[in-house]
Design goal:
three-stranded mixed β-sheet, four-stranded parallel β-sheet, globular, Rossmann fold, 12 helices, about 15% strand, alpha/beta
Amino acid sequence: MAGWIVKKLLDEGHTVHAAVRNPLDKSQVGHLIALAENAPGSIELFKADLLEHGSYDSAMQGCSIVFHTASPFFNKVKDPQRELIDPALKGTANVLESVNRTPTVKRVVLTSSVAAIIGDAKDCLSYPGGVATEEQWNTSSSLKHQPYSYSKTIAEQKAWEIARQQKRWDLVVINPSLVIGPGIRLHSNSESFRLVKQLADGSSKMGVPDFQIGVVDVRDLAEAHYQAAMRKEASDRHIISARESSLLQLAEALHNEFGDKWPLPKKLLPKTLVWLVAPLAGFKRKMIANNIGYPWKADNSKGIKMLDMRYRPLEESMNDMFRQMVEQGMLKQK
């Protein structure tokens, strides 16, 4: 996603200070340099480490807007504290402490997640009308249950805590649902990549669980970040989600173009079967019990009104992503 935000900024003629782990590693930053070569804007790379205090000070010098997007998204981890909680919480604190030391910064746009609002789909049942809004917070996740969602929740809460202790800069938060669509540089270790891969490589040809999620195209999400940065009236949190979907609907979006060549799933698996085999697939049964078969609903009207969001059709997002995966040889049938 960060690549699409950089592209948008460069295309609009802005100067971008990009914080990266190693500015000299062309395999990691070459795509950013290439974006700037054909754009009216310019880019400068700065070495930074999310967990190192003061690491972002140099990159922020002279900047008026800071985008904080860095946070790991992995559902299966061995050490949630080290792999999820520490990077999300400490990283957010480090970035915002650098903001506090940089007098030119007037606004921070933070990428949180709708997971900071909805921990499990079952949570929606307790929300007014069964629909999540920016007013709700995830209270069902913990270090042991849905640790990724927990990491996003406490990281965003930390950001608000720091923001409210000062008055120079304001904080605008983007809460996206599952991000799909083509990448500036496709990451084979992202959760969205793994999900789409499992839909098409034969792993799910017998069917998929009745798992409801929200989805948003990565290009629309980048636009949301840009609008959150540039619109004076933007404030507080914004659910950025194009629509509610399901794993089966994601697969069905690919059927017309790819269904004759790839073993895409065509039916739902019984919840009892999914619950029984969950541990074999690396999922805890509590997660299955609290999500399978429950409607996932979130109100995206604030983003549409405040950020003028317009969302791409699901078929466009899924097909563009899948086509890129195939063209780059990242998909193989089992």
